[in-house]
């Protein structure tokens, strides 16, 4: 079964073509918007890597380019698009009803449209990618996995906010969490590598990228996570503020005549590492500035590491212990310094990082704790697309079986 996975983000579109159930990665690529608003498209086949660039950034143009690469003789993948059996999508927010892998229909898209305000940075482009792909390949089974689905096992005591209960009853204002597919893959793969039983382990999964979140996974289920109703809550991020006193937002509006849109802009795009450092929302750029003596950059990194570390302690308490730390995402995988700072002074929890392994194995799938440490620490390269491919392939099989029975 050929499964094409499309991951449409706010400023990039990733794709991977898998042969399932063997989980063979046949072709992959990512199209990213650069600082000038233009497109860089990187493609990797089993034979070669190529880079293409063009002016502007258009979702439809990128998807057209992806489909052309699938049938390009140079990549030796497919002879025609009819050989794509299933298209799997990452979907941002499922609300209370989006609890798993589902077939994408017109009615589902209409329901998703109602949830755009819960993830205004990501949902519009996510929906655009889904709609464009369905039009370009209309005769294929399309399914998707909600980014919030893995966290539907959160208990009421973890997902409720301290506001009148009626707001949850009437409007479903509660913690939903995000990065669910990434946390699910990272925690499962990390426990496998560490030799732990996933169904009886206490795991903290740390997804660190431009967006970042931490999840507490006990006995195979997410029991708490740092992001909330929207992707703003939680740890400090590239340009998002993370946890903030709600009174600050009211104060800004009352005393500085800021509109809702202006406050939204501040907490989503002008805060986080960028807001504190004044340098960038890119961890690498802030780290470089800090190494060159920029005091604000050093402060931003200190806040970033500290906020994440606090969640480790909180989630160890929530689970009654800790067996495994899993680091994933661009920063989690590729920044030895971030992992070192975040894990420092956590020996009382049994966390003892091996500096040698942390540095030498940076960027790879690896175990990096000290030999006799109680808590396993594992680097896991992010692979949301494989998890999506597994789930949509399984759904497609079930649907086919139901049709034949």
TrEMBL record:
What is the cofactor note? Mg(2+). Can also accept Mn(2+).
Which residues are recorded as binding substrate? 90
Keywords of the record = ATP-binding, Cytoplasm, Kinase, Magnesium, Metal-binding, Nucleotide-binding, Transferase
Q: Which positions are annotated as binding Mg(2+)? A: 7, 384
Of the GO CC terms on this record, one is: cytoplasm
One Gene Ontology BP term is: acetate metabolic process
**UniProt EC number:** 2.7.2.1
Whether Nucleotide-binding counts among this entry's keywords is yes
**What does the record give as its pathway?**
Metabolic intermediate biosynthesis; acetyl-CoA biosynthesis; acetyl-CoA from acetate: step 1/2
Give the required cofactors: Mg(2+); Mn(2+)
Listed under catalytic activity are:
acetate + ATP = acetyl phosphate + ADP
* Entry's Gene Ontology molecular function annotations: acetate kinase activity; ATP binding; magnesium ion binding
Which InterPro entries would you find in this protein's record?
Answer: Ac/propionate_kinase, Aliphatic_acid_kin_short-chain, Aliphatic_acid_kinase_CS, ATPase_NBD
Site (Transition state stabilizer) found at 179, 240
**Residues at the active site:** 147
Compartment(s) where it occurs, according to its Swiss-Prot or TrEMBL record = Cytoplasm
Detail which positions bind ATP.
14, 207-211, 282-284
Record's function text? Catalyzes the formation of acetyl phosphate from acetate and ATP. Can also catalyze the reverse reaction.
Quaternary context: Homodimer.
So what family is this one in?
Belongs to the acetokinase family.
State the protein's name: Acetate kinase
What organism does the UniProt record list as the source? Tangfeifania diversioriginum
Could you read off the lineage of the organism from its UniProt record?
Bacteria, Pseudomonadati, Bacteroidota, Bacteroidia, Marinilabiliales
């Amino acid at each position: 079964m050929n499964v094409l996975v499309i991951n449409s983000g706010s400023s990039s579109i990733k794709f991977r073509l898998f042969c399932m159930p063997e989980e063979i990665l046949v072709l992959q690529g990512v199209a990213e918007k650069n600082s000038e608003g233009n497109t860089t498209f990187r493609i990797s086949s089993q034979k070669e890597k190529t880079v293409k660039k063009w002016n502007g950034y258009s979702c439809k143009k990128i998807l057209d380019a992806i489909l052309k690469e699938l049938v390009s003789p140079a990549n030796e993948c497919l002879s025609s698009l009819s050989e794509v059996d299933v298209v799997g999508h990452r979907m941002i927010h499922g609300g209370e009803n989006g609890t798993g892998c589902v077939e994408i229909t017109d009615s589902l898209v209409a329901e998703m449209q109602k949830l755009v305000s819960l993830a205004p940075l990501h949902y519009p482009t996510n929906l655009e990618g889904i709609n464009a792909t369905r039009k370009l390949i209309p005769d294929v089974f399309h399914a998707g996995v909600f980014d919030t689905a893995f966290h539907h096992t959160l208990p009421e005591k973890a997902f409720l906010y301290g506001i009148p209960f009626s707001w949850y009853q009437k409007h479903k204002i509660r913690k939903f969490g995000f990065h669910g597919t990434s946390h699910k893959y990272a925690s499962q793969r990390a426990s496998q590598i560490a030799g732990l039983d996933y169904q009886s382990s206490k795991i903290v999964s740390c997804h660190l990228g431009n967006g970042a979140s931490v999840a507490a996974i006990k006995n195979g289920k997410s029991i708490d996570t740092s992001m909330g109703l929207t992707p703003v809550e939680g740890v400090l991020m590239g340009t998002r503020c993370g946890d903030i006193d709600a009174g600050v937002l009211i104060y800004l509006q009352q005393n500085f005549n800021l509109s809702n849109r202006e406050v939204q802009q501040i907490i989503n795009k002008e805060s986080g590492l960028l807001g504190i450092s004044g340098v960038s929302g890119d961890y690498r750029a802030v780290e470089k500035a800090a190494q060159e003596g920029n005091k604000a950059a050093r402060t931003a990194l200190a806040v970033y590491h500290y906020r994440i570390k606090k969640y480790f302690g909180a989630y160890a308490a929530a689970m009654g212990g800790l067996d495994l730390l899993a680091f994933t995402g661009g920063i989690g995988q590729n920044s030895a310094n971030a992992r070192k700072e975040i894990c420092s002074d956590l020996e009382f929890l049994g966390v003892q990082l091996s500096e040698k392994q942390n540095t030498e194995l940076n960027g790879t799938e690896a175990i990096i704790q000290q030999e006799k440490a109680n808590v396993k620490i594992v680097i896991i390269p992010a692979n949301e697309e494989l998890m999506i491919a597994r789930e949509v392939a399984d759904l497609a099989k079930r649907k086919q079986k139901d049709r034949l029975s």
